[in-house]
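Input record (one chain):
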Amino acid sequence: MHGHSSHTPPRLIVGVLHPIAERALNWSAALAPVALPALLLGGFYFVVQGQGVCAVVALLLAAGVALSAWMHHVGARRLTTRRLAIDTGGRAAALRLAFVSDFHLGRYKDARWLARVVAAVNAEQPDVVLLGGDFFFNRPPIEAPRLLAPLSDLRAPLGVLAVYGNHDLGLPGRNRRAELDALLPTLGVRPLRNQVVGLRAAKRTGAQTWVAGMGELWEEDFDMPTVRDAYTRDGDDGPLIVLGHNPDALDTLRDGDTADLFLFGHTHAGQIYLPFWPGFGIPIRGKRYRGEHRVAQGRAYITSGVGETSSSARLGTTCEVVVIEVS
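The corresponding structure, as predicted from the sequence alone:
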């Protein structure tokens, strides 16, 4: 289900327990318009009949159904903005980047949701946009051109750069690399695979900011030594931002694989965040799956993304656009 890489997580939790739990939530949310009134009426009836235990059970079930409906209809549809800063002390030219990941279009969210995300990104007036992969919920059939069409509306004078995630490459599902390689450039998006790009807005003085777009870890293709060597050779003392998909890549870094900021998605920050079991079902082997972290090689941020996979629900997490200011 998750490929044959040594970096893929145990199948029992990610491949069995987590999907079962999330599908139960989907059914609960779908049945809420009928189940919630019935349970509330049942609870009231049991109160009148003096059957306290039955009333408590009915009301607890009603609360659970109401929560799952909220997670589906509200929790998964909120969109916020997270802000980060890279302070170079004026060494680099000022630059604003927007980072979005994990769209998972096709099952729960479609082009209308992507258009909303694009509008939120454009409102920040970024110089460049970074896309962190997993464009689809990878179960065919998928109308890729229709689903991704709003990406052509992104407004960023220095372009839109992207990397691929495991779902894009058939881990699990269908490998869509060739399809995306052909489609994304027609939408103004440049896919990167272990490549480094220098960025500086016109008429701004200072060093360029360098973005390294990485290969996918589950394909054993996260080649940090290659991009670090390219940055060392071609860089002009500007900051290096590493754009990847899976934060487990942090555990593969060598001592010299440094960067000013590592950006990842993949985990949805837990998607359904349970305080007593916060890492339940996260498809990684490590413990870094949300927010900001410090490692010996630099600073890392793992975004919650803007889409969902086996369940349409979110709890304790919010879809987000990440804005990075270089100064």
